[in-house]
Amino acid sequence: MITLENVTKTYKNSTVALRDANVEIAKGEFVFLVGASGSGKSTFIRLLNKEETPEQGHIYVAGKDIGGLSSWKIPYLRRNIGCIFQDFKLLPTKTVFENVAFALEVIGRPRSVIESQVPAILDLVGLGHKSDSFPTELSGGEQQRVSVARAFVNRPLILLADEPTGNLDPATSVGIMKLLDRINKTGTTVVMATHDRGIVDTMRRRVIEIDRGSIVRDQARGVYE
Amino acid sequence: MPVKFDYLVRETTSNLGRNVTITLASIMTVAVSLAVVGASLMLRSGVENATKRWQGGIEFVVFLRIDATQQQIESLQNDLDQSPEVSKIVFVDQQQAYSEFKTLFADSPELIDSVTAEDLPPSFRIEPVNKDVDAVESLGLTFEGRSGVDQVVFASKTIRLIQQLSSRLTVGIFVIAAFLLGAAGLLILNTIRMAMFARRREIEVMKLVGATNWFIRVPFMLEGLIQGLIGAFVAIGALAAFKPFFQQWLPSAQDIPLVGGFQVSGGEMTVIFITLGIVGIAIGAIGAGIAVSRFLDV
Ligand SMILES: Nc1ncnc2c1ncn2[C@@H]1O[C@H](COP(=O)(O)OP(=O)(O)O)[C@@H](O)[C@H]1O
Ligand SMILES: [Mg+2]
């Protein structure tokens, strides 16, 4: 599903954020990216949906080399990839329903699809009853559920999560992890950057550790360190 | 993927509503600059119409009698053709005189109805080799009193002055209008840029979930276009309202002998209005286009 071949990413200020990375992630896998702050986890994630482009190497997503992807095709790549973030990125002027519907609307899905899919996904994340609330009226955990719903409503092949529990307390984090686990069980490949030791150690999934841009460990059913 | 209509309407109107003051400022600038352009085009048309028979170096006109015979006309034509002092002759028959009359007085159908081609004299419009005032006059007067000739009419200094003034004024006004239009374009660019800044979160999410570049751009392009178009409509409305005063304020055909009225026909007004509409849309599209390609980064 995802392949990195000798990928190196250097930012303009000559920071090497990722150095000669070789990774193969199969369909349906659940992968943790761990490492200290600034080690290159977010860069790894941003390379996968082509928010960043590598200096060297090739990246294959769903069988396609995304390096040569022309800019007008990038949106179509991103329709196969859901993203969630530490800061949720919800639109404060839209309700829960509208936030999720927005993701379908802007890729041209018809009204009828929106009206059936959005309530279904909100039920899945356990927020069917908060459909008309605004993000500011929700707790952090609920907001993250909305953002998971938005990322998953289009049934992407891949879900990228960049420190999704970074702003949440441990109990709430567990709920979000259960949700991601459920999504993973539907066959969706999940790549999650985190430095939450507790989560990694309980889940016992594949762990890729990055240290100052280099992949130093790739362990099946791994632990934080 | 076609961009959905209700989405466009919603996004564009909410964009326009978000920055009411700056949107109004750009619309007003477009309107003022287009009104200036339109007014100068009207002035130019008016002067052109008023001095139609004096264009292209024509210095005097030999009006024939309405009852002039074909022989009289031909003999005069021969003499003119052979005269070494005449460089160009334009014969205007009754039918041509009538159609000119119709465009000049398009706004007064009663007048057109009361006149037929037979009421208007045919004429020769003459460009002499020597443009010196005395030479022109002595040449022209040789046709005065000839059989079949009613009268000889000379281009006055006033007419030359009006033509000169109008062409210089038009150039000057266009230079000013170009600056105003540039300012209008920059204002629209800035409005769109602010609208994009106000919606940067939406734009970020759109990119993330895979909205196409055009889907993201179109509402902003449309916003600029609509600002230009509204500005053009305001300018057109103002000019249409101002036109009767324009006609009154300029001298009428009766006030200045030898020229037609400073009329601008309905057809000419339509052309001017369409021009303004196109320029308005173009300014909006250019301003928004630059904003979208420079600052949207999609
Ligand atoms: N846009 C950028 N421009 C320049 N340097 C960057 C940029 N983004 C990240 N970096 C640098 O790249 C390195 C890796 O950053 P990042 O991928 O965000 O790490 P992590 O997510 O693990 O904290 C850091 O040194 C960071 O300062
Ligand atoms: Mg990070």
Describe this structure in words.
With 225 residues, chain A is an alpha/beta fold. Chain A is built from seven helices and ten strands. Chain A has helices at 41-48, 74-78, 96-105, 111-124, 140-152, 170-185, 197-203, and strands at 2-10, 16-25, 30-34, 56-61, 64-65, 81-85, 158-162, 189-193, 206-211, 214-219. In chain A, a hairpin with a 2-residue loop joins strand 4 (56-61) and strand 5 (64-65). In chain A, helix 3 packs across helix 4 and helix 3 (96-105) packs parallel to helix 5 (140-152). The longest helix of chain A is centred in the last third of the chain and has 16 residues, at 170-185. The longest helix of chain B is centred in the middle third of the chain and has 42 residues, at 157-198. With 298 residues, chain B is an alpha+beta fold. Classes of the chains: A alpha/beta (225), B alpha+beta (298). Chains A and B meet through helix 2 and helix 3 of A and helix 8 and helix 9 of B. Chain A: Keywords: ATP-binding, Cell cycle, Cell division, Cell membrane, Membrane, Nucleotide-binding. Chain A: One of its GO terms (cellular component) is plasma membrane. Chain A: This is Cell division ATP-binding protein FtsE.
